[in-house]
Automatic annotation (TrEMBL):
It is found in: Mitochondrion membrane. The keyword Transmembrane helix applies. InterPro entries: Hypoxia_induced_domain, RCF1. Residues 1-85 form the HIG1 domain. This is HIG1 domain-containing protein. Keywords: Membrane, Mitochondrion, Transmembrane, Transmembrane helix. The lineage of its organism: Eukaryota, Metazoa, Chordata, Craniata, Vertebrata. It comes from Xiphophorus couchianus. The chain crosses the membrane at residues 21-38, 58-76. PANTHER family: HIG1 DOMAIN FAMILY MEMBER 1A, HYPOXIA-INDUCBILE GENE 1 HIG1 -RELATED. Its main location: mitochondrion. Pfam families: HIG_1_N. The keyword Disulfide bond does not apply. GO terms for cellular component: mitochondrial membrane. One of its GO terms (biological process) is mitochondrial respirasome assembly.
Amino acid sequence: MSSYEEGNDSKLMRKVKENPFVPLGLAGFVGIVGHQLYKMKNRGDTKLSVHLIHMRVAAQGFVVGAMTVGVLYSMYNEYIRHPKEEQNTGKHN
């Protein structure tokens, strides 16, 4: 493996560690779409357009939920778990 490819791998892993809910959201999206496509052949009397709308809403809901949890996790890490020390602005008491 060249040094360029190793750099890309470490950059990808760093991004996954910084934002662990992005791959989770993508995996959930792919899983929901795959499941709904599999269910499509047994949809019964449901119109194709209605089935596709339900699939889109479920997949988007999962991604939005993962993004929300990711933002909350990041806020927790930044403000509660590892708060930055407030810096003095030059004012003396």
